[in-house]
Amino acid sequence: MASLFNLKIVACDGVFYDGPCEIIILPSPDGEFAIMNHHEKMTGVVEVGEIRFKKEDGEWQKAVISDGLFTVYPDGAVKILSYSCERPEDIDTFRAQEALERAQEQLQQKQSRIEYEISNANLARAMARLKGAKTQR
Description:
By secondary structure, the protein is α+β, with helices and mostly antiparallel strands. The chain has helices at 93-108, 113-136, and strands at residues 5-11, 14-28, 31-36, 42-46, 49-55, 60-65, 68-72, 78-82, 85-86. 22% of the residues are buried.
């Protein structure tokens, strides 16, 4: 039996997952990052992309996550806070495609630095959602 820890993923619209987990793989600024039980305590950044985690029953769960933060607590629990987190099968590809086109159009226009960063973040999120939806099919 694998060693388990408690994983809690919280998005703006509520708790995405709260339960036992064997391993979680998440996107970070330096590439993918894996956390297992007894990991050292730390806090880090989650990038826009796909997370994968193995639940207690051995089933792998995938999700598309936006940027956020993760914390590994001294008791081994892991908490992830992000703007959004959704299952690939729940993604509306039509809306994601529209968001991608809107972000690309906004990047073509003259913008302030803040507007540019927002448009760039919207573009990354739309691309991750489309990629996640395609892997589900």
